[in-house]
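Deliverable D5.2: sample structural annotation.
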Amino acid sequence: MKLTIVNDNFFYKLTDGLLAKIRDAAPGIEITIADLRTATAADLNDPEIVYGRVPVHALGELHNLKWIHLGSSGSNGLNDISLYPDPDIILTKSSGTFGIPIAEHIIGMMLTLGRNFYHCFDKQREGTWSPVWSDYHEIYDSVVLVLGLGDIGTEVCRRLSGFGCRIIGFRKDHTVPHKLVSDVRPLSRLRESLPEADYIVLCLPGTAKTDKLIGHKEFALMKSNAMVINVGRGMVIDTDALIEALDTKKIAGAGLDVTEPEPLPAGHPLWTAPNVFITPHVSAGSQRTEERRVDIFVDLLKRYIAGEEMYNRVNFDEGY
């Protein structure tokens, strides 16, 4: 059995200890290491399994490929089944890996925006004592809309519970009870819910159904003190509408770990929009992320070898 591990900007070279975990799960497996930025189909060594992203240009040449496991929770760019020689390809993702670090990142963004930390940091760098008392917001007793109640959204709700917030959750199957959120709604009720919100937290995948979900009409419904946090995909927000909402103070601020376009090019007006805090798609990072990703892959590898049901499968029809 051949396995190729593909490294990229987000999926770093595995340590010897983590590689040993993989070998222990599949004794005798042949492992090849490749780099997404330079790999040709030949470099991938005709694998049965790939851990990481496959260069799209090489997919059509990998005729023995049966299973790809992504190191990400998103599958954008690989959702078209026609890309694969085998229509029965298994595509899985690392959902369940990133909830803890991303939830902490979200709370950090809420605190940064609410406590005006970016202003304080700028003034610190200038060596200027400049208290601004009017621009502080408490998370306590606020209404938070959490769009997406998977691993990430659930971990956010767990942390927000300690702040005394009222949480309104949104997910596709809103009829199933959630262990942390008593008020779960469908996305069809988003617009009627927006006027209630102090914070809108977006933990959604990038699909045709979520493309520009938050646009001019949605921003117009928000409170002037509302803050938007996006850690899902940049395409969920209409960037032009967001810039207008910030420039005209329709909302109080935005925290973005993802943008549209991404990477955000130099000179883009979002860089200088007021009260926006941008991080370069790093919310999933932590000292434990790689180990968690490998643990999920190893568990799925054992299931694959045993012919058992695979979880975290991408639904090609839904696009995630």
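Annotation notes: The chain is about 25% helix and 15% strand. Residues 289-306 form the longest helix (18 residues).
The annotation will be released with the project's public dataset once the embargo ends.
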